[in-house]
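Re: Re: token formats

Sure, here are both.
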Amino acid sequence: MDEAQLPAPIAIDGPAASGKSTLGAALAKRFGYRFLDTGIMYRAFTLAALRANVAPESSGCSAFGGTLALTLRRGEWGTGIMLGDEDVTPLLRDPRVEANVSLYSALPPVREQMVQQQREFARGIRAILAGRDIGTVVLPEAPLKFYLLASEEARAQRRSTQTS
């Protein structure tokens, strides 16, 4: 397929541990796209909020998010994340972050800030974004959307592999 014919951006959605990131990274590598697992952004916000002792509530997180220096660092195939000058990508699967990310990511002001950055990431490049609500909220006009499903057993196995 001619590069000009490749769709962009591509949205990959589905429940936790359904294989969104695995598929997204493989497609990005195969077709030369930039890949973003949007979950890392929520994990980075959570890490920063925990470090700053910001409670998971809307008004505090809204104000905190407005001052947060969270930036995406494009790697060869994937994307890392910076808090200020610190690459926090290796810290994002920390058990404390994992235990709290759903509290912060459920807050509307946090979601609004992250969605804005996700859209900016995808603008003007061949990008694949994987995460929840990518095809419906983040990139509703994406020309190619995938929604992955996996059995409860497969998802549980994937989760246990991720945390070991």
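Second one below.
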Amino acid sequence: MTNLDIFESRKVLILGDVMLDRYWWGTVNRISPEAPVPVIRLEKTTAAPGGAANVAANVKSLGAEPILLGVIGRDDEGSLLADALTSIGISAEHLSVANGRPTSVKTRIIAHSQQVARVDRETTDALAVETAKNLISTFESALDFADVVLVSDYAKGALCDSVLRPVISLAEARGVPVLVDPKGKDFKKYRGATILTPNRREAAEACKLDEHEPNVTYLAGNMLLAENWFANVLITESENGMTLFTRGDGPVHYDAIAHEVYDVTGAGDTVIATLAVGIAAGMDFAESARIANVAAGIAVGQIGAVSVRRDQLSAALDRGL
């Protein structure tokens, strides 16, 4: 089996929008007489770390050590998230609790292995000044122990400008690589990051391109390099795999490996978590991206936001994927 023991003891400092992923599982036997919608007979409920917390779960599953920073509310959902993290061996001690701000929650309704609806509870307001200061202070202390920094932006307000710029500058000053999974149309706010991992639509929008334009991935990737904001960009392309752009080298494309796609939920989290662990372990961007592509293929073949285990990844690599 491919030896990924080099992932052991690597520390990934994760900063971003943490949330609770809640699942309602059931079956459908009829259509409602009240409206043309299915009636779900609820059979069970589950909860799991979501957003940046799911990234941390993926890092943990790969054998590395996540140090998770984010903001939760003083509510039942925040406690559920902390408990869900603790149950899989991830410390919730660095999560900041914000008064008057709810924990972000995504509730997915699943029937017959298909997602039929999603209900979100969240705020996207920027953090209060005091909460932002506490988050930066915690980040600066944790940075001493990090091999790599992973910024997971879900546009829920934790990575507001008053947080984002200082933390990237702190990591840059200490020579710690910074990986960013971005959101929004303005990527300039991530300047200083070592590598950016947008999907094709996000990259196209940031470059003011039509997502359906031929060769949009290559156009957007080269534009992002040309702006001199980033030296490395990895654009994920769903069923078309992903493409790595590195300043001074030609693009490298990785074909998707999933034989059957069941659910793309959390696939981006899997990609950046695997990429971060690879870089923390001393792999170069090309090798880390190749392994991240294999991990993504495993993730989309399962239902829900799943954490790819190190042994699963090793076995897939052994099969030549």
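The CA atoms of residues 294 and 321 lie 6 Å apart. The mean pLDDT is 91.
- S.
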